[in-house]
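[#protein-structures] MJ: dropping Aldose 1-epimerase here for a structure pass
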Amino acid sequence: MSDSLITLTEAVSGATAVIALDRGCNCFSLRLPHQEQPTELLWSEPGFPQGAGGAAHSGIPLLFPFPGRLASNRIVWQGEEFSVTTDPGELPIHGFVYDRPWRLLDRTDTTASAEFVLSRDGADGAACWPADFRLVARFALTAASLTIVVEIENVDCRPLPWGLGLHPYFRLAATASPEDAAACRVQLPVAQTWEMEGPFATGEFRELGNALSLHLGMRFSQIDLDLGFTGLQWFDETATCRLLDTTGRQVSIAWGPEFPHLVVYTPPHREAICLEPWTCLPDPLRLHEAGIASGLRLLAPGETIAATVTITQG
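AK: finished. structure tokens for Aldose 1-epimerase:
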């Protein structure tokens, strides 16, 4: 197996996780036991680790230092202009790390960590963002869960503006049946949705009339979304989305208050659903510069902060 593919294995249960370092440190396969048999939780394009499909369209892409799309390929931060991409025909999306090779730091049978430094590993170095950064992703596998901890370090002498998102593609059912996928119930802990102007959030939120239905669970056949939510339900400082299929399998993704937003996306192929914890709105620097609260975070030089997401199956 290629050195760029890292396989974690929990020997007793047979649980496995496979991470493609060369494709953005993307965990594109997660198999956890259900009814004594490991089942795949994640959707990915066939041949993904060999380069098939878009880097943001499979597994668990890591989105940093901004999730979502920017309105321009140039940003202005504190009076200084930065060229985020050199392609004038393509608006930047999902940051700089999801489609670049990462470097392995360490691994055991059930854990691995890898790093990305913008000035060293970014396609355009550190000139595309107001400050350089180091990102470390730590993966820990158990018989019933995968925990991902993302550590953000400001390695520059200037404050680092940042936003983080995870973009997991979940399979809908333990079987490959379209009927079983359609019958899967999706529980979303949300009370508000983002107000949008075209593809961009305004910074305003609207109360949902069907929040209770989303809390209790809606059939996947009733859901067709590419939308951001907030007003999350918290229990012990944890928000949780759940997928419940017809076999009794329950898949959960849980996170803490560092992620106050949730993006839900149903890909056109209808074989998966994306349940995406985000720390901020899309295009957060533009909103921040306009005096609109966006969830943009600032990290002082030398400081480090971490965010955690856990995926379980029961």
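MJ: nice. Residues 67 and 110 are 28 Å apart (CA to CA).
AK: one more thing. The chain has one domain: 5-313.
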